[in-house]
Amino acid sequence: MKSPIRFPLFVISSVLALAVQMQAADPAPADDKGKTKEAANMNKDELRKKLTPQQYAVACEGSTEPAFHNAYWNNHEPGIYVDVISGEPLFASTDKFDSGTGWPSFTQTLKKEAIVEKKDDSFGMIRTEVRSSKSDAHLGHVFNDGPQPTGMRYCINSASLRFIPVAELKAKGYGEYLELFEKKGEAAKGEKK
């Protein structure tokens, strides 16, 4: 039995970036007026109105945004990342790390039940796709080559996410996550008193 062909991560990243023919866009929803947790059962026409073309292509059609040309790959501000469609909390900056891939990478999710994993054999590779359990948005992929303590790398498209800074968590309905940043001493830096 032959061993599977293994490609270096930078080759895979380059191939995926070339496969995408869409330009990077700011992943903040065009109609974001402070509404956070929205219904996840929007139809395609409603989603096209709510999302930018890049967000729609990634979250709804499974596309991949270009590496190093997306909103959050190099974001170091404390806060959480939520599903761009439903507002469901997915990841925290406390679990974010620089993977060198050009996409936001996290060691774990905020809530395991917020993510659904599916086998993905596209592009001649076998990977594990991650989708939002609430909206079924395509988020990215998870790999077992991340740092400790989990050893996992959730490699996620910025276009599938909306970032909520620590200073806005309470006002936008995510106050329960302030505790994460109080433990790290980041809440005092970003939270408005």
What does this 3D model show about the protein?
This protein has five helices and nine strands, in the order αααβββββββββαα. The chain has 193 residues and is α+β, with helices and mostly antiparallel strands. The strands form two sheets. Strands 3-4-8-7-6-5 form a six-stranded antiparallel beta sheet. The protein has a three-stranded antiparallel beta sheet with strand order 2-1-9, with no helix packed on it. The longest helix has 11 residues, at 9-19.
How are the SSEs placed, and which strands pair?
Elements: H1 9-19, H2 44-50, H3 53-60, E1 79-83, E2 89-92, E3 96-97, E4 105-106, E5 115-120, E6 127-132, E7 138-143, E8 153-156, E9 161-165, H4 178-184, H5 187-190
Describe this structure in a few short sentences.
With 193 residues, this protein is an alpha+beta fold.
| Helix-strand makeup class | alpha+beta
Shape descriptor reads globular
Sheet with most strands:
6 strands, antiparallel
Which oligomeric form is depicted? Answer: single chain
SS strand fraction: 15-25%
List the secondary-structure elements in sequence, H or E.
HHHEEEEEEEEEHH
Give me the count of strands.
9
What is the number of helices?
5
Determine Rg (CA atoms, Å): 16 Å
- Please give the alpha-carbon distance between the first and last residues: 63 Å
What topology, given as strand order, has the largest sheet? 3-4-8-7-6-5
Fraction of residues in helices?
Answer: 10-25%
User: Taking all residues together, what is the mean pLDDT?
Assistant: 82
Which stretches are poorly predicted, pLDDT < 50 over at least 5 residues? 13-39
